[in-house]
Amino acid sequence: MTPASLQAVLDLAGLVGGSYVSSRSGARSMPSPELDLSMARLADGDRSAFPEVFRELWPKLRALCTSLLKNEGDAEDAAQRALEKVLTRAADYDPSRSALSWAFAIAAWECRTVLRARQRRAEVGEADLERVPAPGSGEPDRASVQRELEAAALAALGQLSEPDRVALVAAYWDEAPAGDPASRKRRQRAIERLRLAFRRLYGAE
Amino acid sequence: MAPSEAVFERRLRRAYEWSRLRRALIEFVPIVILVLAALVFGGRVSTVVVVGPLLFALGVVALWRGRELGRGVLPGALAGGAALLLVLCANRMGHYCTGESCLSWCIPACIAGGLLGGAYVGALGMRQRRGAGYWLSASAITLLVGALGCSCVGYSGMIGLALGYGVLAAGPAVATAFRLRRGR
Predict the structure, then answer these.
(1) Are A45 and B16 in contact (CB < 8 Å)?
(2) Contacts of A103 (CB under 8 A, 6+ apart)
(3) How confident is the model at residue B69 (pLDDT cuts 50, 70, 90)?
(4) Domain limits, chain B
(5) ipTM entry
(6) Is the whole model's pTM more than 0.80, yes or no?
(7) What pLDDT shows up at residue A8?
(8) Which CATH number fits domain A3-202: 3.40.640.10, 3.40.50.2300, 1.10.8.50, 1.10.1740.10?
């Protein structure tokens, strides 16, 4: 899988979708050194960093979950669970990695859990959902195809371990240090495992 | 911040504190091995029963609070453990007798253990430029762990431990205090 097709996977997974990206003016790069520092302080036990981490992460996680789940109620629940997990696992945070990527990976996992639960319940009632319109969503059949592709991409992402998910999200947001061989290797391995997961699930490259 | 967000933030804070406390309890459980070793291999039961829970509570609180306090826990446990090991071995050796009198190996072992512990904690604290919290928790834990065995001859052993520790840890601790006052 080339970086371009990985980009397509992540696009399809809604990580650049709808209202989330439009509020970022299309910017892909999301440096967050202040957040990394605050998260490291919180991991160390500095309680004064708590409000900073909460203020930075909460709106971002909520926006991500909304773009992935297209349902405000589910998105709010998933984002709350994700943020709770991030904060209860703050001591596990690796200061050499991006805090935002780590949090996004946890949130993406929560969203995947919700999507799987939906699939199990066979929830397809559009009228019952409170929709968040995504720009350019087009006709209903294109929207349902888009949703299926997003679900497929998330399912494949969900097969990966957390370090792989974090590496892919960090690569997407250009947060991996440029030219760092260790980051490049991690990314390549994560991409390879994502490709294998897709093949396992869908027989596709 | 909306009221519901404030409630959510408070809930998250509680979850964060509980997770830190759980982690501290799990991380400090191995100290029970040292306490049991002291009970089995010759420490006074009355001392162990008092010092053991105090030691456990102190270590858990230091790890829970984190930062410099938390950083002193492992060095303190290692330094105190070395001192305790020395004392428990010395207790097995019985007494040193000259023609006229016999001396327990306990007190010299406590002093030596204190010196060893003070040297380790002091060297680490200086090298890593640790703050006051480190010195406080490392010293308290070293002395409490050592005290599990140094009660062999009553308070004399514990005083010997404290003196030995103070001789080699005081210098680096004072140097750290001056450094902190100068703002470095």
Answers:
(1) no
(2) A57, A60, A61, A82, A83, A86
(3) very high
(4) 3-182
(5) 0.83
(6) no
(7) 47
(8) 1.10.1740.10
